[in-house]
């Protein structure tokens, strides 16, 4: 049997989703507790966990509450790119900026959607000013989030058939 390369994605099964669900609730939960709750061996949980790490399905990070550590200005920025052939180049340039928490190409009225977290409104203004100097950025439209009610990872239970 050929060994699977880390770039080959194996389909996730119910056990993988269950392990991921426990890790989303508490990223520090022990393999022993997960194994007990799922009625499998610790080795099974460890093997599945290592595969999920190796194939990039999960990464273990310390997730902070942005407001509690000093980010006071959140915004959604719609970016219009002209000519359209520069979308990829503009997106790549935006993606490396540390303020960016989400970036996507859209099918709507604008080309790129950018969510940012900044220290304060002055920092946000400087970010938008810098963004508007990028070659290809034709126009931006910034919407400030006054209050964030939910900031979460996707609920894996939504994928249950």
Summarize the structure.
The protein is of the alpha+beta class.
Task: Write up this protein.
This protein has 161 residues and is an alpha+beta fold. It folds into 2 domains: 14-54, Winged helix-like DNA-binding domain superfamily/Winged helix DNA-binding domain (Arc Repressor Mutant, subunit A, Orthogonal Bundle), CATH 1.10.10.10; 66-145, Lrp/AsnC effector binding domain/regulation of amino acid metabolism (RAM) domain (Alpha-Beta Plaits). The chain is 35% helix and 19% strand. The protein has 6 helices and 4 strands; from the N terminus they run ααααβαββαβ. It has helices at 14-25, 31-38, 42-54, 66-69, 87-95, 121-131; strands spanning 73-81, 100-105, 112-118, 137-145. The protein has a 4-stranded antiparallel β-sheet with strand order 2-3-1-4. α2 (31-38) crosses α3 (42-54). The longest helix is centred in the N-terminal third of the chain and has 13 residues, at 42-54. It is elongated and about 55 Å long. It starts with 13 loop residues before the first helix and ends in a 16-residue tail after the last strand.
**Strand order in the largest sheet:** 2-3-1-4
Cα-based radius of gyration, to the nearest Å: 20 Å
Distance between the termini: 30 Å
Outline the low-pLDDT stretches: 1-7
Q: What share of residues is helical? A: 25-40%
Q: CATH H-level name of the largest domain... which superfamily?
A: Lrp/AsnC effector binding domain/regulation of amino acid metabolism (RAM) domain
